[in-house]
Amino acid sequence: MGLIELKLIRTMLILTLLAVFTLLAACGSSDDPKETSSASPSAQASPSAAENGGRATITKEQYDKIKNGMTYKEIIEIVGGEGELVSESGKEGDDLYATAVMYQGKTGTASFVFLKDELQTKSQFGLE
């Protein structure tokens, strides 16, 4: 495959993940009482994590600090814990390995799309 084809595939993958993310954010998340969370840094790092299934919540201020090119680890440090993995494409370690992570806020959601653990796209809806 040529360089142009790889760039086209990468762009299509990112756009597809962003579309999935947007749909998931618009639908909200379900608070399934059967869902259990393990004792993870996210459960300890965020004061409202217990209300969010053990995951960290995000504010608009935190969201604004996050920039394209950051790693997921850097985002975890800003937010104070892990988000919910909502999409994964490819095999970890491959050039086209992509993930999408969503954080709930008190009033909205934030979505992040990573390609090889580098933030490519971010979006938010309703964060305060």
TrEMBL record:
Coiled coil: none annotated. InterPro entries: BamE-like, BLIP_dom_sf, DUF3862. Keywords: Signal. PROSITE patterns: PROKAR_LIPOPROTEIN. Pfam families: DUF3862. Residues 37-50 have a biased composition (Low complexity). Residues 29-57 are annotated as: Disordered. The keyword Secreted does not apply. It comes from the Bacteria. This is DUF3862 domain-containing protein.
